[in-house]
Amino acid sequence: MFTNFSLIHVQVLLGGLVWTVVLSLISFFFGGIVGFGLALAGISKSRWVAKPIADYVALIQGSPVLVVMFVIYFGLPILGIEVGSLAAAGIALVLFSSSYLGTIWRACLESVPKTQWEAADCLALSYWQRMGFVVLPQAIRIATPPTVGFMVQIVKNTSLASVIGVVDVTYVGKQVNGATFQPFTTYLVIALLYFCLCYPLSVLSRRFERVYSVNRR
To answer: b/e for 127-156, b at 16 or more Cβ within 10 A?
Structure first.
């Protein structure tokens, strides 16, 4: 028997939203770690380092996130590797976020004026000293707006995890809709919950852009 949509259903959706946030944070944190490595490797002068990284980025960015989830969740068990739904979604989203964050951060590192790199060389700084004291502080300021903006994409892509059974807000929404048979109300509430997560990030990204533009003048 169908029931009316009520506050209880909103509370259930909020419970699913917690897992959406957790999955987003996991994807951004580990994707950021891998992405930083990709960014450093991407600016390497060695073709043997930069070329495989470029191929990896092209492969991941050219593949839908959902398909990558399917390969991990349905494909790996055929090879005898069992992966849970949450782990499969997390790995796929980490691969996705690392490829884009790596690209963003590599571009930001390359946007630091060459004179800054040359000045660091003149000071006889080691590679890591040059990165830590000269290049990274400037690159971080440039990278902050697009990085915060990309977090919106991570949050929205977590909804794909519901397809393989991750109990996020989208998955819970399907259950609520099945109980209430009120898809308009159910998915409108879900859209509002995603909006509450994404809109502050978009505003923060634009704010960083304005601050950075002013500081460059």
So the answer is: eeebbeebbbeebebbbbbbbbbbbbebbe
**Please, are residues 167 and 13 in contact by the beta-carbon 8 Å criterion?**
no
CATH number of 158's domain: 1.10.3720.10
Long-range contact set of residues 52-57: C-beta below 8 Å, sequence gap at least 24: 53/102, 56/99, 57/99, 57/102, 57/103
Q: What's the farthest any 2 CA atoms get from each other in the chain?
A: 76
pLDDT value of residue 27: 96
- CA dihedral sign of residues 108, 29, 199, 179: positive
Query: Who contacts 48 (Cβ-Cβ below 8 Å, separation ≥6)?
Result: none
The answer to whether position 37 is within a domain reads: yes
What is the tens place of the pLDDT at every residue in 19-29?
A: 999 999 999 99
Task: Provide the sign of the torsion angle of the four alpha carbons 120, 122, 125, 127, taken in this order.
Answer: positive
- Our count of domains for the chain comes to 1
2 located within any domain: no
Question: Could you report the per-residue pLDDT of 130-156, keeping only the tens digit for each?
Answer: 888 888 888 998 999 999 999 999 999
